């Protein structure tokens, strides 16, 4: 599995599946350097996650719940919420669990705003890669993220939805998260954003944007 991370919550899997695309300019980050993908998955219909119109694609799923087989992947969309009040403040959120036929598993939590219940944890456990928001304010905060990580036990963590220099959204920066995570931390940047670890052989790693 090869991942490219484009900041905020946007990630590209194997140059085929794009999750939560942003347009760059509306959030103060560079526009993702992508022209065409097979499938776009959107966790929820907010402007910083739903810029699918600027890309060429074959299929689109927004707030998808259920299961589907897509080429060499099994994709499951799990209902969650953008807040701690069953969506009354910010609406619903899809968690995407994507598993390749060879067994590698990536989980994207979108803008989850609450701790999952045990039925959801069963779906997330043992992820090779976990994309998890840490910036608080409108999602879970870094302490809640650490609690989820402890239960899911992923091999690779890609923190999402946090403040970096230039970002317009007033989110928390990643320092508190990084000072409390017991994983090896590796910096990446938006010009060298390829994450191509041999997942089955890797140490426990966190990839964080340099700024």
From TrEMBL:
Keywords assigned: Hydrolase
Pfam family, any one: Lactamase_B_3
Taxonomic superkingdom: Archaea
Gene3D superfamilies: Ribonuclease Z/Hydroxyacylglutathione hydrolase-like
Gene Ontology MF annotations: hydrolase activity
SUPFAM superfamilies: Metallo-hydrolase/oxidoreductase (SSF56281)
Protein name (Swiss-Prot/TrEMBL): Zn-dependent hydrolase, beta-lactamase fold protein
């Amino acid at each position: 599995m090869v991942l490219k991370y484009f900041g905020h919550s946007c990630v590209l899997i194997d140059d085929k599946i794009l999750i939560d695309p942003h347009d760059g300019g509306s959030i103060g980050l560079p526009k993702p350097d992508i022209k065409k993908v097979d499938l776009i998955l959107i966790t929820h219909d907010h402007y910083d996650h739903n810029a699918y119109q600027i890309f060429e694609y074959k299929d689109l799923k927004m707030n998808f719940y259920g299961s589907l087989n897509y080429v060499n992947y099994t994709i499951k969309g799990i209902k969650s919420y953008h807040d701690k009040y069953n969506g009354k403040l910010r609406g619903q959120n899809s968690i995407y669990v994507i598993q390749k036929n060879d067994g590698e598993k990536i989980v994207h939590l979108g803008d989850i705003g609450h701790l999952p219940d045990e039925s959801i944890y069963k779906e997330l456990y043992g992820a090779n890669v976990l994309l998890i928001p840490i910036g608080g304010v409108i999602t879970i905060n870094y302490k809640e993220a650490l609690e989820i990580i402890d239960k899911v036990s992923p091999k690779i963590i890609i923190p999402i939805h946090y403040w970096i220099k230039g970002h317009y959204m007033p989110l928390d920066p990643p320092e508190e998260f990084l000072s409390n995570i017991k994983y090896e931390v590796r910096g990446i940047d938006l010009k060298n954003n390829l994450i191509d670890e041999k997942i089955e052989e890797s140490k426990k790693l966190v990839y964080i944007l340099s700024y």
